[in-house]
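Field log, afternoon session.

UNIT: design team B
ACTIVITY: writing a sequence onto a fixed backbone
BACKBONE:
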């Protein structure tokens, strides 16, 4: 078996366990998963590949590419949790393979393997690769664009001197540049302008540094703070900046992205009379940059800390990786270009998203392949004996694994006792990092570096399925999603019940109810909607919470309604289902229409075409 085949077998085995094991075992997690999965289901039911809708309303949050992949998956697997998540898992595998091949190209095969193992077993990338969200497609296409850039500017390293060196700073062939930007066009279809802006900024930052005159590159360790600051801002000198931008073929970039992405943007603009365009670009792009939406805020340390947490357990090596990278850059070693490219990749995402007001850990996941490349190179060089670390760094790294393990053993049972009773056993997951950290630390103390790093890899590999396949499944049982759906329908079919809500509508309720749930915020109006209907129409059932039910009760006669409730997962209240008793006479269609007003446009069309229950 050749080395490449062996590496690919290892990578596919690891990613299959991390991304596909029990992929459809849990219900979709509120709120993003059912929104995206439900949008794809509604588009498929309506045979509409242009206008995204969820809960019979225009969904302006994201472009359509993610929904298209889900729709194709639904055609094969049905409208199921597995079908909704399958595209993300496949994109996760694809990103891992791209990381491997970039590691081979920039460094050597063993670095690619370590980088692939690292990224596939980190926490946040595991979430992205198992969730029905646009993150996995965005990460994949952004990584593919940067991989094409690496492929177009480097040559396969047949000797150690050739490895990792860029023979050109930008692809010389127009076709390669056009392909590069066309892939970014797909990223724009996945999540908007950041699919072009951020990968381009990564390449641009790398070029700004590499294109500096030789005399400036040689001044790597300035003597004064002023000279250090001057070195930091010198790449952004106006003339140098503009020349670098022009060298990146901006006309080709704009043309390629417009050819790929513009047709759909025009169609959705026309079909929604500009409503989708305004909502997406103004509310969800400019708005998130200028304001902290939905309470998602943080300071300048938010993303560095999020990266350390999200890249765990491999982030235990972040300090020695950073120090080794700086040392290689100062020495202008054969690894310096690769390290610089990886650092630019990570730095651009951290810096630009830190400027935005709305902050979420998932925003920086497209830089994870860059982190993996840097960590993979450090680990491979350390294992190969190319340098020795001071004892403090292995002790801090593996000691942090031990601390996390102890923290899980202590904290998780306490939290489980509060939120998910009878699941205290989940605290035993802490034994994985605890034992792994102890074994790795003892090995490092004996200078058995290979054994220490292999133990870390096995710890990471065991943690991923333990959390995503086992722990998540145990927690999901307490959400009682199926019980809620049964409570709403009580054995009746989708078209036999008309669902409404009062001041509370979870996306998972809509997805699993398999029909839109119209929400009312006025208690008097909600009570009228519940108690009146057309003679030929289906009975209405109202869903709300125990807290909001207090506002609704004064407008309802307790003798005319039946109330059922069940615990609201992770909330200090209950979900309440209210339905009129069978003995209540319904008013005429004319009176109902006069009191209640028209039903939301499109509700009946989407409900009648929506697929059946999740298998």
């Amino acid at each position: 078996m050749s080395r490449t085949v062996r590496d690919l077998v290892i990578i596919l085995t690891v990613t299959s366990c991390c991304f596909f094991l029990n992929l459809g075992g849990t219900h979709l997690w509120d709120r993003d998963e059912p929104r995206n999965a439900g949008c794809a289901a509604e588009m498929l039911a309506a045979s509409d590949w242009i206008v995204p809708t969820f809960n019979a309303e225009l969904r302006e949050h994201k472009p359509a590419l993610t929904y298209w992949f889900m729709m194709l998956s639904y055609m094969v697997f049905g409208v199921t949790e597995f079908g909704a998540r399958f595209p993300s898992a496949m994109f996760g595998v694809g990103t891992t393979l791209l990381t491997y091949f970039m590691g081979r190209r920039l460094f050597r095969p063993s670095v690619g393997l370590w980088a692939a193992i690292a990224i596939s077993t980190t926490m946040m990338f595991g979430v992205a690769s198992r969730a029905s969200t646009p993150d996995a497609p965005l990460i994949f296409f952004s990584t593919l664009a940067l991989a094409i850039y690496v492929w177009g500017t480097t040559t396969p390293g047949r000797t150690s001197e050739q490895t990792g060196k860029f023979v050109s700073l930008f692809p010389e062939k127009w076709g390669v540049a056009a392909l590069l930007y066309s892939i970014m066009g797909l990223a724009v279809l996945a999540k908007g302008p950041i699919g072009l802006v951020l990968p381009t900024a990564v390449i641009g930052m790398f070029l700004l540094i590499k294109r500096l005159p030789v005399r400036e590159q040689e001044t790597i360790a300035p003597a004064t703070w002023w000279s250090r600051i001057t070195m930091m801002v010198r790449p952004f000198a106006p003339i140098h900046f503009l020349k670098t931008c022009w060298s990146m073929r901006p006309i080709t970039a704009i043309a390629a992205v417009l050819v790929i992405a513009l047709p759909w943007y025009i169609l959705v603009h026309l079909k929604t009379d500009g409503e989708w365009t305004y909502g997406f670009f103004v509310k969800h792009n400019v708005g998130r940059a200028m304001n902290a939406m939905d309470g998602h805020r943080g300071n300048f340390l938010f993303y560095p800390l999020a990266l350390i947490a999200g890249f765990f357990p491999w982030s235990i090596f972040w300090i020695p990786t950073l120090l080794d990278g700086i040392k290689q850059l100062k020495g202008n070693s054969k690894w310096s270009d690769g390290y610089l490219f990886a650092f630019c990749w990570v730095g651009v995402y951290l810096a630009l998203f830190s400027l935005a007001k709305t902050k979420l850990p998932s925003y920086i996941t497209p830089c994870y392949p860059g982190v993996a490349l840097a960590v993979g190179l450090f680990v491979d060089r350390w294992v190969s004996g190319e340098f020795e670390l001071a004892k403090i760094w292995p002790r801090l790294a593996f000691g942090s694994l031990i601390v996390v393990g102890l923290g899980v053993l202590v904290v998780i049972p306490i939290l489980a006792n509060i939120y998910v009773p009878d699941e205290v056993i989940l605290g035993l997951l802490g034994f994985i990092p605890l034992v792994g950290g102890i074994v790795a630390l003892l090995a490092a103390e004996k200078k058995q570096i290979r054994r220490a790093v292999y133990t870390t890899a096995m710890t990471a590999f065991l943690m991923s399925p333990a959390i995503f396949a086992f722990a998540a499944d145990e927690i999901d049982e307490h959400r009682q999603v199926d019980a809620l759906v049964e409570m709403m329908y009580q054995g009746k079919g989708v078209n036999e019940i008309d669902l409404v809500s009062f001041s509370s509508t979870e996306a998972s309720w809509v997805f699993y109810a398999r029909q839109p749930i119209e929400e009312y915020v006025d208690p008097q109006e909600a009570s009228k909607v519940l108690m009146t209907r057309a003679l030929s129409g289906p009975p209405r059932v109202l869903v709300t919470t125990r807290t909001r039910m207090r506002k609704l009760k004064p407008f309802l006669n307790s003798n005319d309604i039946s109330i059922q409730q069940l615990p609201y997962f992770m909330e200090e209240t209950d979900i309440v289902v209210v339905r009129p008793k069978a003995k209540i006479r319904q008013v005429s269609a004319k009176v109902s229409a006069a009191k209640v007003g028209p039903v939301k446009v499109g509700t009946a069309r989407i409900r009648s075409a929506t697929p059946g229950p999740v298998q």
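LOG NOTE: The CA atoms of residues 240 and 246 lie 10 Å apart.
NEXT ACTIVITY: expression trials, pending approval
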